[in-house]
Protein 1
Amino acid sequence: MADESYLCIGPDVKLGRDVKLSKFINLYGCEIGDESKIGAFVEVQKNATIGKRCKISSHSFVCEGVTIEDNVFIGHGVTFINDTYPRSTSLEGKLQTEVDWKVERTVVRKGASIGSGATVLSEVTIGENAIVGAGSVVTRDVPKNAIVAGSPAKILRYLAEEEPEELMSSSATRDDG
Ligand SMILES: CC(C)(COP(=O)(O)OP(=O)(O)OC[C@H]1O[C@@H](n2cnc3c(N)ncnc32)[C@H](O)[C@@H]1OP(=O)(O)O)[C@@H](O)C(=O)NCCC(=O)NCCS
C-alpha cells in the first residue's frame, strides 16, 4: 500500500484482500473487492461498490450509486453521474443536503472497459465485456459485448463472443471430415 500519509480512507471503507492503492485517493463509505487497483487522485464515494480485480485509473470519479462488477477497467478521468437535474440549493434557497435529492444508479457489468475521459450518465447499465470509447458520453444502456463511442455514444460494432468448447470441437471434426 502507498505511504498512508497521502491516503484519505474513511473508517467505513471495506477493502478486500490485496487491494492496491496509489497516492492521493479519497475513499469513504465504499466497498472495493480483492486484488483491485485504484490509481492516484481517484475518488470513490459512499454506497459505491467496486468488484474484484478491477483497475480504476487515475483521476476517475466513482460517485454514490455506482456499482462496478468484477474485472472492470476504468480509464483515466472517467466521470459517473448520479443526479440528472442537479441544483445547488433547495426550493427554500438553502444549500441542498441529502434529503433534497435522490441518488440515481448506474451499473457496470463484469469485464466491461470504459475509455479515458468518458462520462457515464445515470440510470444506465454498461453490459458485460462492453467497451466504451475514450471521451464518450454514455446516455443509454450499452449492450453486452458492444463497442460504443462518441457523444452520445453509439454502437460501432459487437465483439465476437468466445465459442463454447463443445462447438469448437464439433467444428474441428467437420473440418477433418
Ligand atoms: C472505441 C475503440 C475501442 C475502438 O473501437 P473499434 O471498433 O476498433 O473502432 P475503430 O478504431 O475501427 O473506429 C471506428 C470508427 O469509430 C471512430 N472512433 C473510434 N474511437 C472513437 C472514440 N473514442 N470516440 C469517437 N469516435 C471514435 C473512428 O474514428 C471510426 O470512425 P469512422 O468509421 O468515421 O472512420 C477505441 O478507439 C477507444 O476509444 N478505446 C479506448 C482507449 C482508452 O481510453 N484506453 C484507456 C487506457 S490508455
Protein 2
Amino acid sequence: MFDFLKPKPKTAIPTFAPLGIDIHCHLLPGVDDGSKSNEESVACMKVMRDAGFEGIVCTPHYQYPRFPNEEPDILRRFDNLKLDLASINAPGIPQLKGVAGEYRVDSGFARRIQQNQFLLVGGNYLLTEFSLHQQVIGLDQVMFDLQMKNYEVILAHPERYPYYSSSSSKLQHLKDMGVYFQVNILSLIGFYGEGPKHKAFEMIEKGWVEFLGTDMHNTLYAQALIDATHDRKVIKLMEKHTFLNSQVQNQQPLKTNKI
Ligand SMILES: [Fe+2]
C-alpha cells in the first residue's frame, strides 16, 4: 500500500551475481540507440557491477538500414573503448569480456550466414532479434541454415514480440528447433509493459529461458535495473532458477568468424 510514497532505491544490490556476465547490452558508445558517450557507458556499467555482473559482452545492433554496423568498425571501436576506460581509470565497472552483436533477422541476414559474418557472444552463441512488428518470413529455413553452420542461436527478448503474445505454440516451435531464449531483466519489472512482464515470468516458469540479459541502453535503463535488484518477485526468481550466462563464458574463448 502507498508504494509511491516509498523512496526509490539509489543503489543496486547484487541480485544478479549468479548470472556472472551480461550477454546483451548496448554500451559501445555512438553505434546504435544505446549509450552516447563513454561517460554514459561508465555510469551504466557501475550500476551493472553493483547489480552483481562481473563481466559484460557489448552487443550493438546490426540492422539495415537503421544501424548499418559492420564488424571491423565495431571491433575497432571496442578496442578504443577499452583503451579509453583504462586511461580514465574507471573503477567499479565489470570486465569488458568482448564485443558481439544483436543481429536483426532482416534482409541482410542471409548474406551474413553465407559469409559467417557474425561476432559471437561466446562459444558458438549467436544473439539474434526479430522485428517487433512483423514475423520473419521463412524463419524455419533461417534457423536450419544457422544450425547447419553449428551456430547456437539465442533469441533476444522473446517476451517482447507482440505476435507471440497470444499463443505459446509459436514459441514452443522455436524451442523445438533448439533456439535458446534470453529474457530481458527489465521485462520482469514491467519496463516494457504488463504483457511482456507476464510472458517473461511464464516462459521462465516453463523452463524455456536459458539466459537473462540487461539490454542496457542508457541511464534510464540503469535506474530500472536498480529497481529490479530490489524487486521481491525478481529476487525470488533468481533464487529459484538457474541460467546459463556464465557457461557462455566458460566455453571456448570469444571468437570471431571470418570477416
Ligand atoms: Fe538489445
